[in-house]
Amino acid sequence: MIKSVNPYNQQEVFSIEELSEKQVKEAIDRADERFKSWRKTSFAQRKKYMLAAAEELKNNKQEYAEAMTQEMGKPIKQAIAEIEKCAWVCEYYAEKAEKHLSSKAIETDAEKSYVSYEPIGVVLAVMPWNYPYWQVFRFAVPALMAGNVGLLKHASNVMHCGEKIQQIFERAGFPKDCFQHLPLNSSKIEAVIRNRRVKAVTLTGSKPAGSSVASIAGEEIKKSVLELGGSNALVVFADCNLEETIKTCVQARFQNTGQSCIAGKRLLVEDSIADAFTEKFVKAVKELKSGDPMDENTFIGTLAREDLAEDLEKQLKSSVKEGAKILTGGKRDKAYFEPTVVDDVKSDMTLFKEETFGPVIGITRFKDEEEAVDLVNQSDFGLGVSIFTEDRKKAEQLIPQFDDGAVFVNDLVKSDPRLPFGGTKISGYGRELSSDGIQEFVNRKTVYFNAY
Description:
Layout: E1 2-5, E2 12-16, H1 21-38, H2 43-59, H3 61-72, H4 76-100, E3 104-105, E4 112-119, E5 122-126, H5 134-145, E6 149-153, H6 159-171, E7 179-181, H7 189-194, E8 198-204, H8 207-219, E9 223-227, E10 232-236, H9 242-254, E11 264-270, H10 271-286, H11 306-321, E12 325-328, E13 332-333, E14 336-337, E15 340-343, H12 350-353, E16 360-366, H13 369-377, E17 381-382, E18 385-388, H14 392-398, E19 407-409, E20 424-425, E21 428-429, H15 434-438, E22 442-449
Parallel strand pairs: 5-6, 5-8, 6-7, 8-9, 10-11, 10-18, 11-16, 15-16, 18-19
Antiparallel strand pairs: 1-2, 3-4, 4-22, 9-21, 12-15, 13-14, 17-20
């Protein structure tokens, strides 16, 4: 049995029996058989089902949000917002998929030549617990609209969410086996990837998990997309709008209790405003309400598991030992970790070099633009960077100097169905969302007509 435990009260909330090897094979066979008919459906048919999925999400968002809050501790208001975002991506691709996958005419010496975009078959998604619906929907929706079918191996602590996601698509009227949740432990993933009927795999998770999945897929010559960790920088220049920047930086670091790959994790502040910024930033962090994730007023809940809080505590203690100074927070109680701000963080310290997955942020000061860019790019991660300045020309000049997959000016890094999302360096490869995302798992077929 695979069990999930509420991190706030340690009560078991869900259990499910792991599939046997035979059951997994049968599920893959059913998916492959479904693909043969699903690929022939029209965009209009797929659109009808996908809009129904959006309605299902919106009409029952409380039900789906509560399952998320109970399994991994996301504050309920943020959980509802995640469900609403899933409905948005359903609506986006329902309207845009046909355009994104329309054949592209190319003028050659042929009578007619073009590129068509065709589905490839069964695609496996290995997904994490921190955004247990959104991470899945941003894969599943474009995959299904492209004519593929999906298999989900969800994180072991959010299996109820995995079951709910399959339920959403079934309630929306999608044909059986278009999307299947496979209750499996991580040790069983390799066999699924190696199954000849599985044509590609996408993973959102850690670097070790990504390396393993990419290696197996590579041996099988199968397409993979990886969205891995991040250590995004929030770069605050002296000419920023101070009050609005502080609000955005607090949101960027502490939403979802800091458990996000695209959270702002390194706070870089220009020397001349560092003291004033830090004082107001700490004050704002102290005002964040912690408590029961089911309480609508709670902004900071528990981490998803106690061991995650323990890991964060080790990173904090290591940095303090290296010379960093705690300005607020720093205490842990089981899976709960106080919102924490740390000053005097240098680029060789643990909090700067490693990804921190929880409500802790370190402040590092810089003297000029050149040093700011250097500090951002020192990271092994490359998911995104936020810069805060009122000087648009300066922002435009800085953007090409960052190595990351995304640069946001005067805003936190976020995923949007209309924009491609993905990273560089050890943050992964490939893109999700927009036209780029839906074209990751298709056959770009060259078609050439000659006339005799």
